Amino acid sequence: MKKEITILTEPITLKSKLKLLAKKILGRQTKYTGHYAVTRSLVEGLEKIGYEGFNYRPRSEKNIAEHVHVLAGVETLRYAIKLKNEGKIKKLTVGPNVVVFSTDYDSLIADESVDLYLQPSQWAVDLHIKMEPKMQGRCVPWPAGVKIEDYEPDKYQKKDKQVIVYHKLGCEQFCYKIAYLLRKYGYHPIIIQYGNYQLQDYIKTLGETEFCIALSKLESQGLYLAEAWAMDVPTICFESNYYM
What is the DSSP letter of 4? Predict the structure, then answer.
């Protein structure tokens, strides 16, 4: 079956292939690249509805479909824009994990080659359009989710007074002050830094934890919170009173 959509999280270049090979040799290779949960949500979602007209990370450019969706990476986006400008693809959709703000990298996401840009929530869509009006009519919400079957709370044994301190954004001193106070009152804090852990390790730690304290300025969606709830772990979220 001829593929209609290609999903990319990195360019199809020698450099990217060598990078993936190095990860495999070091034992750091994962099934999904980019934002693991988002990539999994899209790929497995398409599989579950029985859609066979897509491929994910094809080995060569000859296997790229006419419609490319870039899930992650600025260099991946530049690569896809080049493909479209060269007439190798006809449609380019992007998001949600490419840039933080629509004005980043000289408003690369607003390039006329980009047909549609996805964001995880409506407020994020509104912010992107406000910052870069060229995105008007080309930016829509697309929430991802968690694969609930992978979360089995009853599989783990809770450790007495173990608490996760999930540090996403903000001052590190504040994070460690929270950990200090927890220890003072007899708790055992486990600090998890956003973007610096493996999903299975996070799930296991959640399974052994009584509750989670989330330190973040704001969330466009907050998948790590959904993952905590899927493991029946209550969350205490810091109210930063911060909105862009």
Answer: S
